[in-house]
Write a structure and sequence with these properties.
The two termini are 46 Å apart. The protein is an all-alpha fold. The mean pLDDT is 87. The longest helix is centred in the middle third of the chain and has 20 residues. It has two domains: 70 residues, no CATH class; 49 residues, no CATH class. It is 67% helix and 0% strand.
Length: 124
């Protein structure tokens, strides 16, 4: 039972922190204001939502938020010894590979290349 509550709570909270959820709610509020005949308030809500869409589309806000988190961990930590290499990539496009008879990868292929570089660096 506890796992189910945590799962549901994580999905609800995940939905609430997404910017598009807040934009959708702002549009719903504006629609409700129009339905009640409060045009001035509806215009303010629509204007705010439009500005938010422009801000999210024009500026790399996600990059600004992620940059401090990514800066905490070095991309290539110094390794003295490696016991094994596990590559979690998700880069393989199995259906396309089967169709064309050759490996097909997507945008996550740099993980495979990093795994190959580590395998060359630590051949044992």
């Amino acid at each position: 039972m506890g796992g189910t509550i945590f799962f549901v709570a994580s999905k609800v909270l995940g939905l609430l922190i997404r910017p598009e959820t807040w934009l959708f709610l702002a549009l719903l509020v504006a629609l409700r204001r129009v339905a009640r005949g409060d045009g001035a308030s509806a215009r303010r809500w629509l204007g705010g939502a439009a500005l938010a869409v422009l801000a999210l589309g024009a500026w790399p806000l996600g990059d600004l938020v992620l940059a401090p988190l990514e800066a905490r961990y070095p991309p290539r930590p110094a390794l003295a010894r490696v016991d094994g290499i596990i590559v979690l990539s998700g880069a393989e496009e199995a259906e396309l590979s089967r169709r064309w008879g050759m490996p097909e990868v997507n945008g996550a292929s740099e993980r495979l290349l990093a795994g190959l570089a580590l395998a060359r660096r630590f051949p044992e």
